[in-house]
Design goal:
10 helices, globular, single chain, alpha+beta
C-alpha cells in the first residue's frame, strides 16, 4: 500500500469515493466542500488516498491546527474513510498511514484520526497508537431512519413528540426552507442564539461568527442535484409562529444522511412546539431528497441531559464511535502536550 496526494484534478474521484464509502454519522466532514470550508477559515488542508495496487482503499483529509510555541498537529475528522470492500484491512491501512506520517509529517506533533468504529479493533492500540481520554466529535449520535413513509416515521416517535408535531400545526406554526441565508436572517439567528444561550445558564453553545460566515460562503451555492448527493449542501429551516420568526435550524445534506448542525429559538415561542416541528419538517425534506437517515446530532446524558432527552423522544438509532486515535509523531513532546492539557483542563 502507498499514500497518494489528492489534487484538484482528482476532485470527482474524491467525491465519488467518499460518497460511496462514508459513514452514516459525520461523513460530511470528509467531503470536498467541508475541506473548502476549512480553507475559508484560514486553515491548511491536505487530502490523500491510500492505494493498494490499483485500488483506492481509503481516503482522508488532514486539517492542520496550530499549538503554542509554534507547534502543530493534524486532524482527520471522521477519517480515514475506508472502502466498504476493504474494512478488514483497517489495521493495515492505519499502519501504512502511521509509517507515511513519520516520514512526511515529522514537523507535526501528532496526527489525529477519527475512524467510524464502534469498538477498538484488537491489536490496534499499543505504543504506536493512543486513544486519549477526551474526544473531539460526539461519541454518540441519535439518528432517525427515513426508510418508511412520513406517517410511519411520525408514528415511530414518542407519543408526546407525535402530539407536539400536531399541536404545532394547530398553534400557527409554519416553515420555510432556503438554500441561502440573507444578512437579515442571520441577524435574526444571532438573536435566537443569544436567547438559547440565556436558557442554558449563558453557556455559549455556538462557534464563532467567522465560522458561520465561512459556512454560508462555501455552501450557499447552487443546490442543483445530480441524484447522487456528491456535493455537501446546506439548507436553512425557518420556523414561524403566527408569522413571527420563532426558530432556525441549519441542516447539512451529504451522501445518505441529513445532519442537523446548529439551531436557535426564541423562548417565548417554545410552547408552540416549533423546535420539534422543524425537525420533522427537516426529516421530510431529507426523505424527499432521497436521504436514508436524519442525524439529530450528538447526545450525552451527563453533559447535555435535557438536549439528550429531547432527541431521544424521536426514537431513532444511537450510533456510538470510539472517538479519536492519536499517532504520536514526536513522542516525547506528545507526552508533554497531554500533561499540559490535563492540568489546563
Amino acid at each position: 500500500m502507498k499514500i497518494e496526494k489528492v489534487i484538484e484534478k482528482d476532485k470527482e474521484l474524491w467525491k465519488d469515493f467518499v460518497r460511496e464509502n462514508c459513514p452514516t454519522v459525520g461523513g460530511f466532514m470528509q467531503s470536498w466542500e467541508w475541506g473548502e470550508f476549512q480553507e475559508a477559515r484560514g486553515r491548511t488542508i491536505d487530502r490523500f488516498f491510500v492505494v493498494d495496487g490499483s485500488e483506492k482503499v481509503a481516503a482522508f483529509t488532514i486539517v492542520h491546527y496550530s499549538l503554542p510555541l509554534g507547534m502543530k498537529y493534524g486532524y482527520s475528522p471522521r477519517g480515514p474513510v475506508i472502502a466498504l470492500s476493504s474494512e478488514d484491512k483497517f489495521i493495515e491501512i492505519c499502519e501504512v498511514i502511521r509509517q507515511w506520517a513519520l516520514k512526511e509529517l515529522s514537523h507535526l506533533l501528532f496526527l489525529r484520526i477519527e475512524p467510524a468504529l464502534s469498538c477498538v479493533p484488537p491489536g490496534l492500540i499499543g505504543k504506536n497508537f493512543k486513544i486519549p481520554s477526551y474526544y473531539i466529535q460526539p461519541k454518540h449520535n441519535h439518528v432517525v431512519s427515513l426508510g418508511k413513509s412520513e406517517e410511519e416515521i411520525l408514528n415511530s416517535f414518542h407519543a408526546s413528540t407525535r402530539s407536539n408535531v400536531r399541536r404545532a400545526e394547530k398553534r400557527g406554526v409554519t416553515t420555510q426552507i432556503k438554500d441561502k441565508v440573507t444578512p437579515d436572517e442571520y441577524i435574526n439567528f444571532i438573536e435566537m442564539m443569544k436567547d438559547t444561550c440565556a436558557r442554558n445558564s449563558d453557556k455559549n453553545l455556538y462557534p464563532s461568527d467567522e465560522y458561520f460566515k465561512s459556512l454560508f460562503l462555501v455552501l450557499s451555492e447552487d443546490h442543483s442535484l445530480d441524484g447522487k448527493h456528491r456535493r455537501l449542501e446546506l439548507s436553512a429551516f425557518y420556523g414561524f409562529c403566527n408569522g413571527e420568526p420563532a426558530a432556525t435550524y441549519f441542516v447539512l445534506f451529504f451522501g445518505d444522511t441529513a445532519t442537523y448542525l446548529y439551531g436557535g429559538s426564541h423562548a417565548k415561542y417554545l410552547s408552540s412546539k416549533v423546535t420539534t416541528y422543524l425537525h420533522f419538517e427537516a426529516m421530510k425534506e431529507a426523505k424527499r431528497r432521497g436521504m436514508r437517515f436524519y442525524d439529530l446530532g450528538g447526545i450525552d446524558p451527563v453533559r447535555w441531559p435535557t438536549l439528550t432527552d429531547f432527541k431521544r423522544q424521536f426514537k431513532g438509532i444511537e450510533y456510538s464511535y470510539i472517538g479519536n486515535i492519536d499517532i504520536p509523531l514526536r513522542p516525547f513532546l506528545y507526552k508533554i502536550y497531554n500533561i499540559v492539557r490535563f492540568f489546563k483542563k
